[in-house]
Protein 1
Amino acid sequence: MRVAIFFATREGQTSKIANRIAEHLRAKEVTVDVVNVRKATPPLDWSEYATAFVAASVHALHHEPEIIEFVRRYRDDLHRIGAAFISVSMSEAGAEDMRAPAERRERSAADAQRMVDDFVKETGWKPERYLRVAGALRYTQYNFLVRFVMKRISRQNGGPTDTSRDYEFTNWPTLDRFVDEVSERLRSP
């Protein structure tokens, strides 16, 4: 079985997620191709893939433009092989923050879902399965302006504001379970 993982990222958390999916599948003896769509995408032979994962980070309330363009171009192929979508955002981090008030978590969850819904509208692709995943704050990698803006947004949402370090919010066990569910479906008759 061969699976493709297509991703787009800015600071690297979605790349880390894509590579985690690949490692998880390879441990199950699945052949995996990992493709960063921000770079030149090689010609694709979709008949080689049992399925695919499309992972995209959110910045300024929108998914990466490269992944939107990629999905628009290949949406019929993605649909045919039952590809799964992974939306990576800080809104999901807020939705999963059990220390936050319920109202704030609900608002964050609604924002994260709205971004998935907008992605579906923008691309015309409605994935059979999707997962919202919390991303990371990469304060040490941001320029001054981005660090200032992200700190302000984080403060407003009750998140960390120490810009001398980075914060990772991805729930790895949840991601692994999702990958297991998708790959088990492929093994079922």
Protein 2
Amino acid sequence: MSYIYEAMEKSKETIMKLFNNNESKYKDVFTIINNIWTRQLHCPLHADDHFLNLEFYYSNLEMEYDLKVTNGLYACIKRLVSSKDVQQEILTELPLYKSGSGLFGVDFEKESRKTQSQVRHLNVL
């Protein structure tokens, strides 16, 4: 799912470049894309998966400030984890993920962020 989210962002960047960043030329195209994305494709789970994809997160640390993505992360935590204690534990551990420390800072883990599948990373944790 995170690859869908990333592909959408890259596609929009490409469209912008093709129109020389002239918003008046791509505005209508973006309206169509955003309507389809919002109605059919975007959901908190996509945003959550995008945030937790090690390859994407660590190559774009500004993602932490993308409200759509972080809201999706928190919505998924709330929906998928019923225990308030476990929710709090996840939120306590989140800074380790963001800073690349703990298990996320181990040398072999850092080296494999772009070469190993996301599933392998989740199995390590």
Protein 3
Amino acid sequence: MYWSDNTIQISKIGDKYYPENLSKIKTPPQQIYYRGNFDKSLFAKSIAIVGSRRITRYGKDVIDKFVSLFAANNVTTISGFMYGVDTQVHQKTVEYGGKTIAVFGCGLDVIYPQENDRLYTQILESGGAVISEYEPKAKPHLWKFPQRNRIVAALASLGVLIIEAGEKSGSLITAKIAWQEGKKVYAVPGNVTSSVSAGTNLLLKKGEAIFVTRAEDILGLKPKAESQNQHPELSLLENKIFKVLKTEPLNADEIAAQIDESVVKVGTTLSIMGLKGLVIESAGKFYLQKLLDR
């Protein structure tokens, strides 16, 4: 396995360690700057995941669902290190013990956005890599991000997955590049009333992306059958709450009404489930934070 240390390394086109998929695109970068693990095996089974910077709770849940299975199957995730979907993809991959590659739209000595300083280190510590075609001190500019997208698409052996993208999202540029390069493009359908899902839904409507609802659709795996039995690690009331929240997020009153229990009992149980990391509250509604029998 080929590893770099914390100094920035350079791989030029034609070098032994220059990614083969990247050399095949119409305008390959003449050189790539990188930190971290740059072994070719990292790209052999990889998926690019991109989407809106204005990620919603739905988007976070979708990423959690997909990335957990990708990590479990040693699939490297690739994204652009920006706010929203990109950041969530990198973070969740690290959390699930997977490897992720962040493609920068600036130099590797410029952490942008600055809030991702810790994430930068986590990606390297988990065996992933950060890469860029720009010199280490190069600052971010708007024109650099569409340029970066061709690298994101090129490195992914399994194709590009779009999660929450507006009609004019840069993610659609990545999808177009992937399609032009003969890569598969996948899209997760979104809420028809959500502006951040308008782009993904349009891709599906036009037949420009493959409809997917789970990672198994991409990996060619047989979906795990949903357990119809109660989860033994949960109490009877926790099981009832878990079941209704699998359908949609609800507030405590709505949950109590659906399962015919007192709001007081439901509220107490939700607090316990929150401590267990099973649910999370946002804007007065409760969402499943952790899905059992994934």
